[in-house]
Amino acid sequence: LVHSLAVTEKRGVFKSWTVLLAIFAFSLSLLGTFLVRSGVLTSVHAFASDPKRGFFVLVLLAITIGGSLTLYAFKAPNVKSESKFTLVSRESFLLINNVILSVAAVTVLLGTLYPLLVDAMGAGKISVGPPYFNTLFLPLMSLLALVLGSSVALKWRNTQGSTIVTSLWLPASISIAFGIIFPWLYHGELRLPTALGMTFSTWIALASIKDLRTKLSNQDNVWLRIRKLPLSYYGMLVAHTGFAIAIVGVTLVSVYTEERDIRMAPGEFQEFSGYRFEFKGVSKVTGPNYTADQAEIAISRNNQPVVTLFPQKRHYSVKSSMMTEAAIDPGLFRDLYVAMGEPLAGGAWAIRLHYKPFVRWLWLGGLTMALGGFLTVADRRYRRSSSKTVATELQHA
Fold it and tell me: What is the C-alpha R_g of the chain?
């Protein structure tokens, strides 16, 4: 939607796309509310079960989607583009971007709703898990990364192929080289998923830097030019950077995550992912509404203490339920998780260890993309044009 708004504002095209995507964006927010509020979806994200409230949201969803799409069907044929563009242009690549992101959204939507539809029709229960999403979603995001890095070098309406090659051959070469070298430096071996992910993320970052340098080149006063660039442009750079950060997080946490289920008794230790986990023992603790067995696990690296974690196995007296409270040592480049399982013979416990590299980059990338969106809509040009439109309408009235 943000991309379509940019094209509509600059070139007067994609008007129907913009309206349709706005309808879908709001409708999907209502759909998400219905799923987590009604109780039809059994998930850790479904934090309430209220059929009455769910029915209300469902009616609101039907009115919103039905009414808006009906209006769209009647009015869309009257909305026409004001300019034309060739196949090799920024408009074309942003259109491809729209298609890829829309297909990705439909992929997630289908994977979420299909099990519910099958269950509602009495055809049994099925589970759609990571294999489905990884098989369909990752190729789409890889294609999106290629298009995204290329689109910043394109001009509106028409672009010569030689211009693209001249602008992007160096970022492309550096990205491929870094993608190949990084797995060797990080883990001592070449892994294709890592090489591809790091190539795509570097490609996006370098293409954005190249575009910024192009805009600042041949300027007598660079700082003045930096201040004059619109806020929406910086929003684009921030959002693209966030996507690159998220790719790094997805790639490294998917390829290099390690976990291990082990038996540990007091005084024993385990070497894991370059860290030493020493099980000190278990003690009883009492919380506001629970009692718990709390383990003490000291973590060190190269004989230097890192942190001491205290995972718990909690018993809540109200519902007579047992809950596992994992202990986490967060970091910018890795997270360490320790969780308690069941007690074993001889005072030992089942312990689960997790090592997740760069997992924080997933959230950092998402937050950075969101920040880019906020910067874009905060551009004063949009507020000025909106104010002028209101003033013009009042004059005509």
Answer: 26
